């Protein structure tokens, strides 16, 4: 599915507004852009910051990468991002470009665990912050869970879930913030450039 979970989006918008207003975040890379839902939130934040203090929203960069070309066309991602790259996450990250924030919204579950860890460690070297939202296991007993049927990835193999993360596995990233929801868990990790 090109859409990420709605859980955590309100928190993300509030957190990003404060970080942009404090001038901590100006450059953003959205990995696995999908339908561009996070781009919509970023633009809302920029508008909110502009109303609060017009001088703060004059310059920001919002880039994205999406491996599945059909999504770029279907969701008109070229209009939502300053630059949208039709490539995999590793290729998008390995350049010399650094960002204040990398967004990994419903991305980690589409990678094998060791590749996901490698990606997060690579991003840490090139960022101030990483925002991650991913389905977690075990699910709370009152929740059906995030069971993926074959129909959800048959057309786009990149949508297939390759690893379901547990809370303990996410804690290995030593996040600054941890917000558990019913189906997903949101974490914010401090990158190596946070104190640079």
Poorly predicted ranges (pLDDT <50, ≥5 residues)? none
Cα distance spanning the termini: 37 Å
Strand content: 15-25%
CATH fold-level label: Rossmann fold
Tally of DSSP β-strands: 8
- The helix/strand class is alpha/beta
Major sheet: size, sense and barrel closure? 8 strands, mixed
Gross CATH architecture: 3-Layer(aba) Sandwich
What proportion of the residues is helical, as a percent range?
Answer: 25-40%
What is the highest CATH level, the class? Answer: Alpha Beta
Coarse shape: globular
Calculate the mean pLDDT score and round it: 88
- What is the gyration radius calculated from CA atoms? 16 Å
- Helix-strand string: HEHEHHEHEHEEHEE
> How many distinct folded domains?
1
- Number of H/I helices: 7
């Amino acid at each position: 599915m090109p859409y990420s979970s709605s859980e955590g989006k309100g928190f993300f918008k509030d957190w990003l507004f404060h970080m942009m207003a404090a001038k901590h975040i100006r450059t953003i890379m959205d990995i696995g852009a999908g339908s561009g839902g996070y781009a919509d939130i970023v633009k809302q934040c920029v508008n909110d910051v502009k109303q609060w203090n017009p001088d703060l929203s004059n310059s920001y960069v919002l880039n994205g990468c999406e491996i599945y070309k059909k999504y770029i066309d279907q969701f008109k991602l070229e209009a939502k991002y300053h630059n949208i790259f039709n490539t995999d996450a590793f290729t998008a990250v390995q350049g010399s470009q650094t960002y204040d924030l990398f967004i990994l919204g419903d991305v980690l579950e589409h990678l094998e665990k060791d590749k996901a860890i490698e990606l997060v460690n690579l991003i840490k070297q090139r960022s101030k912050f990483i925002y991650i939202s991913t389905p977690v296991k075990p699910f709370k007993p009152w929740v059906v869970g995030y069971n993926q049927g074959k129909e959800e990835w048959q057309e786009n193999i990149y949508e297939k879930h390759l690893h379901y993360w547990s809370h303990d596995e996410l804690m290995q990233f030593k996040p600054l913030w941890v917000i558990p929801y019913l189906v997903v868990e949101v974490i914010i990790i401090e990158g190596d450039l946070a104190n640079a």
